[in-house]
Amino acid sequence: MKEPSHRPKLILASKSPRRSYLLEQAGLEFFIIPSSFNEDSVTFSSPETYARKLAEGKARDISDKYPDSWVIGADTIVVIHNTVLGKPESSDEARRMLKSLSGRTHQVLTGYCIYCKEKNRFFSETIITDVLFKELSDEEIEWYIHTGEPFDKAGAYAIQGLGTFLVKRINGSYTNVVGLPVCEIVEFLIKQGVIGLNIESP
Questions:
Q1: How many other CB atoms sit within 10 Å of the CB of residue 9?
Q2: Is the pLDDT confidence value at 165 over 90?
Q3: What one-character-per-residue DSSP string does 82-131 give?
């Protein structure tokens, strides 16, 4: 990826088009510089801590290269009955995941970290959203798998895509399920003076 020609003020340490879209919709200007952080270096403890530690690792990785920038790292996982559902690597795995979610409530956890190394400002937390799936028929599951959308998606679905028909109800942040808790991130950046609320006079 092409390096920015000047020192970026805000960096998204992720190549996720969904996270990029959410920040763009919030009106933020930022550079995309994906992290090469080794996720296998994080030992699993609890889902909440695991998601946060992954986000911290990604943010620290890019902050080492751009210490005067504000870096956003994030990681999203899907959990049902204390089992973490990653990205399915086959149709069979996607089918098992969707059947396990059918008619049940699961949790989507997004850990995020905002870090400016030069200013020694570091903040991270995990946001949790409850998601209730409708009862899925075998035909619905097969149709959805054949759209190709479940692949490269934690939990084998995308709430912002065709997978919206799977979701009966959510309790919590919608953008968190997409991949980034925008409300909390924007609120923190405003408090730190990274972004402002400028109102022009008519």
A1: 16
A2: yes
A3: TEEE---SSHHHHHHHHHHHTTSEEEEEEEEEEEETTTTEEEEEEEEEEE
Per annotation, catalytic residue among 64, 68, 75, 92: 75
What is the C-alpha to C-alpha distance for residues 171 and 183, in angstroms, rounded to an integer?
Answer: 15
What are 28-71's pLDDT values in tens digits? 999 999 999 998 899 888 999 999 999 999 999 999 999 999 99
- What architecture (CATH level 2) is domain 10-191? Alpha-Beta Complex (3.90)
CB 33, CB 16: distance < 8 Å: no
* Residue whose tokens read 């089918």: 95
In sequence order, what are the residues at sequence separation of 6 or more whose Cβ sits closer than 8 angstroms to the Cβ of residue 62?
11, 13, 33, 35, 69, 71, 73
Task: Tell me the β-bridge partners of 80.
Answer: 83
Tell me how far apart the alpha carbons of residues 117 and 101 are, in angstroms, rounded to a whole number. 40
Output the CA torsion sign for 164, 52, 17, 25: positive
- Name the phi and psi angles at 45, rounded to 5: -120, -75
DSSP string of 12-32? E----HHHHHHHHHTT---EE
User: Catalytic: 75?
Assistant: yes
The string of DSSP codes covering 30-84 is -EE------GGGSPPS-HHHHHHHHHHHHHHHHHTT-TTSEEEEEEEEEEETTEE
